[in-house]
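Bench log, entry 3. Co-assembly request; chain sequences pasted below exactly as received.
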Amino acid sequence: MSAPTTMSDAAPADALHPYALTLEYDGSGFSGWQRQPGRRTVEGTLLAAIAAVTGEEVRLTAAGRTDAGAHAHGQVAGCSLRRGWDPGRLRAALNAVLPADVVVVEAAPAPAGFHARLDAVARSYRYVVMSRGERSAVARQYAWRVRGPLDLAAMRRVAASLVGTHDFAAFGRSPRRGGSTTRRVDSVRLRQLALAERRGIAPQSAVVIEVVADAFLYGMMRSIAGALVAVGLGRMRGEQLAALVQRPPAQRPPLPVAPAHGLHQWRVTYPQTVTR
Amino acid sequence: MSAPTTMSDAAPADALHPYALTLEYDGSGFSGWQRQPGRRTVEGTLLAAIAAVTGEEVRLTAAGRTDAGAHAHGQVAGCSLRRGWDPGRLRAALNAVLPADVVVVEAAPAPAGFHARLDAVARSYRYVVMSRGERSAVARQYAWRVRGPLDLAAMRRVAASLVGTHDFAAFGRSPRRGGSTTRRVDSVRLRQLALAERRGIAPQSAVVIEVVADAFLYGMMRSIAGALVAVGLGRMRGEQLAALVQRPPAQRPPLPVAPAHGLHQWRVTYPQTVTR
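Structure output for the full assembly:
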């Protein structure tokens, strides 16, 4: 990282102090991660907080860009500051100016050249589905409500067929034009959470779909959730879904895409050499 | 219920059609249950929906009045309509006009003279506490965040001392002036939910305190949660709390009161003769 920079006013690159910021945010009030003019975004909000606290204008890298309405519990953003900070003080100072719906849960020194997306070796996302007759008031921004019972056994059978290294072209697109659509899915787990059992009301339960992969295509987690729920509702056959990863079609099929508000970015893993 | 009514335009009372409405609401945007002029309340919102759908102005009874910011998953409201409705159609019609943060999860016919508060034989409330170093973005409106670890074993020991029929005067006040402050607490359960385990971050976990009682004093659940958390944080001795129900003091002591946004009204139980 001792290459000369083109920014005339920048300090030498080797004097920069790189940090990894772990973020939690409620996506309900944001137009997604990526900065856009005139829109309230997580990236724009974090950049403003960093500028307010440090007086520095920085560039951010992010482990993954989340869509409008999607939430994050362990998003990681990387930035480099010219002035070094005690990580705990940096975290506290940022949280003092950040709005209530975004918080830095950890700030840590990162190695020179740290890139939150390129350095990550695994990610996990969780998707929350509620099966109930009426919409939910409390969970309306955090879970997708579907009508009708979910056949969890059928969903688990087909989930297993997604595990492994496959061409997921049917499930999303590469962040780079023409980039590879092959990804390594380490696990797909489905857990059922009982939310309430009330006499006279159909049992209210939520199904949490957790996918761990080396990386995700754009839209991939929402397509996986949408397709698994379609199988659970009996609207799609499991073999049909399994075939899409075994023999990816030439044309991307119209897979059902689950809405963003049920999506929770959960965790990013880096090699031990990058973060402690 | 055949007593004459003083309202000249009312149908005879025995021609009324009583309903029990089970409600879920997100209290974040409401100034509590009870109707107040110029404030957005759940009662006012439901009354407006009933008027819009049925053209009738009714009175509501509620199993329990919730505070501003507190949530409900199984609140029960009673009302009597002059025109009879198919319960499923009534529920769907109300939900079509209610805002996103309140929903009728069930409408059921109720017996003549049904009163949602007086007829209830048991209630349960849940209180959610998160112990973590930083505030939460996603759970900020649904859980109380406290710093420092919670000694769950100490909380469970003292929780057991609350069970039974006691004078809970130290924990709240009667809904009626001069009314009894004796209540029968059937159970106090504490469950720990692991929300995330991330390397480098203190384990994030939530403790759910569930109390089942025949009835609650105003403020009682928030005082129980506040006191149990004070014990869990080592700021109050368990014996001190236990003594308050064994020998209620003449003057109400300044018990810590947990904030309303962690409070979730959960369920109301009626005798089988009242609801199916």
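Confidence is low (pLDDT under 50) at residues 1-11, 197-203 of chain A. Residues 42-54 of chain A form the longest helix (13 residues).
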